[in-house]
Design a protein that fits this description.
Helix content is 29%, strand content 24%. By secondary structure, it is an alpha/beta fold. A nine-stranded mixed beta sheet has the order 4-1-5-6-13-12-11-8-9, with helices on both faces. It has a two-stranded antiparallel ribbon with strand order 2-3. The longest helix is centred in the middle third of the chain and has 17 residues. The relative contact order is 0.18.
């Protein structure tokens, strides 16, 4: 039994995203991007969508070997102390926010390997007391651009690069860093594109871009998923 568990694919929890329209299923659904799932699978992981329901999150995560916090809509501005909501803020869901924030805190506290992508990066920042810029003057939607990665970081080791072209789709960015977080990558306009927590008890890195968009053809982007699954396997 132990031999089977060791040889099985590490189980990677991925919080599902609410979707109002899914024609093939005829109803609203809970989904994750196929490209994201396939990148985890290529890395040797077993991706598992988990239902966003607040409460008892640490116990629910205990059977998993790693966590991937994916992209999605915007966090409610009140989550990071903003008094007003910018007109560009979209797809806010309080249950999704509450669940994702609990997942981020639980994974970081327990040392469960964690990769956070786009909204996921913002969730981690807010979970640790950081704030967001609600709408960038020149947003990064439908944009491929270079980012510079700080040497010696987990992000550099995962991608194998100090500069890489990335696929972005976000109109918000980190304003104030959460407690203990350090920026590991930047775009040319100064946007924080990567975060890490040097004192975290487990493997953790976060990117503001969408590595799943190009992971099938770019080893640097697939390297992020490979590193997550490797850390999950090592922890198990």
């Amino acid at each position: 039994m132990n031999r089977t568990h060791r040889s099985a694919r590490p189980l990677i929890a991925i919080p599902a995203r609410f979707s109002a329209t899914t024609s093939a299923l005829r109803y609203a659904a809970e989904v994750n991007a196929r490209a994201l799932i396939e990148a985890v699978w290529r890395a040797g992981g077993e991706p598992a969508g988990i239902h966003p329901a607040a409460g008892d999150v640490p116990a629910r995560l205990a059977r998993f070997d790693g966590v991937l916090l994916p992209g999605g809509g915007d966090l409610a501005p009140h989550r990071y102390g903003a008094g007003d909501t910018h007109a560009a803020v979209y797809d806010v869901d309080d249950l999704q926010d509450a669940f994702d924030l609990e997942v981020a805190r639980a994974a970081l506290d327990s040392g469960l390997p964690l990769l956070a992508i786009c909204r996921g990066l913002q969730v981690v920042d807010v979970a640790l007391g950081g704030t967001l810029e609600q709408h960038m003057d020149s947003d990064h939607r439908h944009l491929v651009h270079p980012v510079t990665i700080r040497s010696g970081t987990l992000l550099e080791r995962a991608t194998g690069a100090e500069k890489t072209d990335v696929s972005c789709y976000h109109h918000q960015r980190v304003d104030r860093l959460g407690e203990g977080l350090t920026a590991t990558a930047h775009a040319a306009d100064g946007t924080v594109e990567g975060l890490e927590l040097p004192d975290a008890p487990g493997w953790f890195t976060a990117v503001q871009w969408h590595p799943e968009d190009t992971a099938h053809e770019d080893p640097a982007q697939q390297g992020l998923f490979d590193a997550l699954v490797r850390a999950a396997r090592d922890r198990r």
